[in-house]
Task: inverse folding
């Protein structure tokens, strides 16, 4: 015990900390989010949640900073199914309270030019606006899938060495793998294994899936590095990531007969393939127009899916089919982004993205063109914005194959008005209108047309 | 007679040409010197740290307050950190040059480069533009001509230089003869209509430099104004270039 206290004293002394002087700064916000689906009849959406964020920050010395972010999410869902459930708060008011972020910053650690951040943290890579193909270190948070670009902070050691004022080398070690967070309720996001064609005359009565994570061994740690700098007036970075895809992929399907009536059970096994990503991004301007670009070359592990089905001719020897569901052929995702503010104060942002968050594999990437326009009034108290998006299979079709676009397109329109009646309070009213042909992303979400009302209060 | 005319032209032409020289027009030297002196007076410190309170007052008299801390090196390099209100606390803004600006948003843990189209935008809902905050650099974009001179002030008319990227067609600047700090600036559009008025008040010496402790920017169209009050101001601290980097944008407080 005495030795531990002495060690702690030495470390604190090294960092110039006077524990008696450390103060904790508390801040946070409350975000209320209510969404109404308006496709057939008006329904309250299941997946949105209200959120309370509490942030604690302390800087005991010039070279030490501590940060903790606590998050409480409350869903407007009723999970009670039996009268017994009504005796408890949690089924009726489902909520989760968790440590969202918790890290220590050690500035000028050993070397003047070295900063280290240790702990559960968000490492945001990429220069584009929200849709960042090079941002792969933290898993996606699709708890609310329409909050595009949300990520979950994960445990990491992040060392940044400032080579010069303009050049930086970042090295990151992520000891363990964490997967994507998916929405509650019904929201089509991942491939549905139960949609696979079953043998004729069979009827699916039960479906179970099982996730297999990478072993928690040191050799399965993830790591990344990034070199950032400046050239010809542009900021740029080159990055490399070795880890795992945070989205599960089916690698085994077993269809079993449960009776003689043709009823079957489906067991789905999902894994997380290894993934390496080489990235490049840049940011700058041309004739006052802001420009951002990101390119990520994905080098995936090949995934083969084995499907076992009952063999009516030989019940002891099921039919086995192996298919490649993810090729190891490299594929490229990229984003090109530009923005401009006119003399009249109208802000325009346009983005061309090749490959959405959930898309993978060379032949499965689509093109998305997003354009947003916004204008602020009354010294930023009121903001009116509208964004629109077009999803097409391939941008070259605009010139070469317009019929293809007519057959395979998706659209999204997002109007929004926000009002800040006073400092620290923001009210938002907006909508998502989605449409698309079958097989497109926006097409699969077309039943998610919605109107939302959000309130954000900071303290 | 013809001969006399030729002699007259020879004698008077240089005078006519002199009357139209750039110096006389304020295109190089001349009235520009006063503007340069005003700029030099405002930018005299090598560096500066200031704690600033911004009060936003609308036409009904309702007010909002923002507090910022600003570090400045030379004429251009600025680092600004928001201290309050809570919804912008921790947001950082770094200016390295006219076309190199960065915004740090702690909620996203991300630094974003801002293109120069944004520099004439309102600075966080105030009546100052991003370009106005902590910056006094007129000679680069404007030429000056004395319109009037009183016992206490030079009144200069500033017009944009060709190809300069400014939102105003004309500025009228009242320069105090005592210390060359501008007391007042009026901003005009192309139709000659006055858009904004800035007043520097309570000018006093801080660390041997004349410093306006209160700056008011009023937007005459919206009848909204912002009062910038300097709290603690320290000059010539000895900031190095390394203070104005993305590293410090995240760290500074």
Result:
């Amino acid at each position: 015990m005495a030795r531990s206290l002495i060690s702690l004293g030495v470390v604190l002394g090294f960092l110039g900390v006077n524990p008696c002087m450390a103060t904790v700064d508390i801040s946070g916000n409350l975000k209320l989010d209510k969404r109404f689906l308006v496709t057939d009849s008006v329904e309250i959406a299941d997946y949105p949640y209200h959120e309370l964020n509490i942030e604690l920050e302390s800087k005991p010395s010039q070279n030490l900073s501590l940060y903790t972010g606590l998050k409480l999410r409350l869903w407007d869902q009723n999970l009670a199914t039996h009268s017994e459930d009504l005796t408890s708060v949690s089924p009726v008011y489902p909520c989760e309270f968790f440590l969202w972020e918790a890290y220590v910053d050690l500035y000028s650690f050993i070397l003047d030019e070295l900063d280290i951040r240790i702990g559960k943290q968000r490492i945001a890579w990429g220069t584009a606006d929200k849709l960042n193909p090079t941002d792969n270190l933290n898993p996606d948070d699709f708890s609310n899938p329409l909050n595009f670009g949300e990520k979950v902070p994960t445990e990491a050691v992040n060392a940044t060495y400032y080579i010069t004022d303009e050049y930086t080398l970042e090295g990151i070690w992520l000891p363990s793998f964490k997967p994507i967070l998916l929405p509650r309720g019904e929201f089509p996001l991942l491939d549905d294994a139960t949609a696979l064609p079953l043998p004729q005359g069979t009827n699916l009565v039960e479906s179970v899936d099982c996730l297999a994570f990478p072993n928690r061994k040191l050799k399965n740690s993830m790591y990344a590095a990034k070199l950032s700098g400046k050239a010809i007036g542009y900021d740029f970075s080159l990055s490399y990531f070795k880890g795992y895809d945070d989205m599960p992929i089916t690698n085994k399907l077993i269809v079993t007969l449960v009776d003689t009536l043709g009823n079957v059970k489906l067991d789905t096994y999902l894994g997380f393939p290894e993934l390496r990503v080489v990235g490049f991004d840049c940011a700058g301007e041309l004739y006052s127009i802001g420009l951002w670009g990101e390119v990520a070359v994905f080098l995936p592990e090949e995934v083969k899916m084995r499907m076992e089905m009952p063999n009516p001719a030989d019940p002891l020897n099921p039919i086995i089919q192996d298919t490649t569901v993810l090729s190891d052929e490299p594929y490229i995702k990229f984003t090109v982004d530009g923005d401009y503010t006119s003399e009249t104060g109208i802000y325009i942002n346009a983005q061309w993205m090749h490959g959405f968050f959930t898309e993978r594999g060379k032949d499965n990437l689509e093109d998305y063109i997003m354009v947003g326009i916004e204008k602020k009034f009354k010294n930023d108290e009121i903001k009116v914005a509208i964004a629109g998006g077009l999803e097409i299979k391939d941008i070259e079709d605009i010139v070469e194959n317009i019929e293809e676009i007519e057959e395979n397109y998706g659209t999204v329109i997002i109007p929004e008005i926000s009002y800040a009646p006073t400092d620290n309070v923001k009210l938002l009213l907006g909508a998502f209108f989605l449409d698309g042909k079958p097989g497109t992303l926006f097409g699969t979400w077309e039943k998610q047309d919605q109107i939302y009302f959000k309130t954000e209060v900071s303290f | 007679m013809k001969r006399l005319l030729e002699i007259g032209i020879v004698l008077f032409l240089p005078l006519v040409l002199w009357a139209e020289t750039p110096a006389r027009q304020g295109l190089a030297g001349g009235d520009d010197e006063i503007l340069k002196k005003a700029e030099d007076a405002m930018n005299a410190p090598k560096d500066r740290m200031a704690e600033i309170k911004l009060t936003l007052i609308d036409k009904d008299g309702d007010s909002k307050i923002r507090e910022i801390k600003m570090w400045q090196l030379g004429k251009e390099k600025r680092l600004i950190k928001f201290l309050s209100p809570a919804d912008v606390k921790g947001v950082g803004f770094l200016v390295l040059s006219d076309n190199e600006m960065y915004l740090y948003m702690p909620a996203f843990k991300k630094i974003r480069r801002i293109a120069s189209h944004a520099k004439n935008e309102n600075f966080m809902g105030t009546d100052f533009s991003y370009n106005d905050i902590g910056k006094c650099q007129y000679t680069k974009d404007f030429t000056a001509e004395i319109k009037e001179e009183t016992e206490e002030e030079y009144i200069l008319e500033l017009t944009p230089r060709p190809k300069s990227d400014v939102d105003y067609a004309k500025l009228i600047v009242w320069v105090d003869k005592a210390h060359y700090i501008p007391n007042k600036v009026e901003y005009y559009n192309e139709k000659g209509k006055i858009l904004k008025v800035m007043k520097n008040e309570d000018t006093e010496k801080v660390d041997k430099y004349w410093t306006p402790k209160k700056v008011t920017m009023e937007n005459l169209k919206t009848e909204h104004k912002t009062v910038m009050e300097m709290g603690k101001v320290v000059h010539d601290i000895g900031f190095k270039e390394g203070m104005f980097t993305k590293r410090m944008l995240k760290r500074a407080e």
Q: What stands out?
A: The mean pLDDT of chain A is 90. Helices of chain A lie at 2-14, 89-92, 397-400, 402-407, 441-444. Residues 2-14 of chain A form the longest helix (13 residues). DSSP finds five helices and 24 strands in chain A.
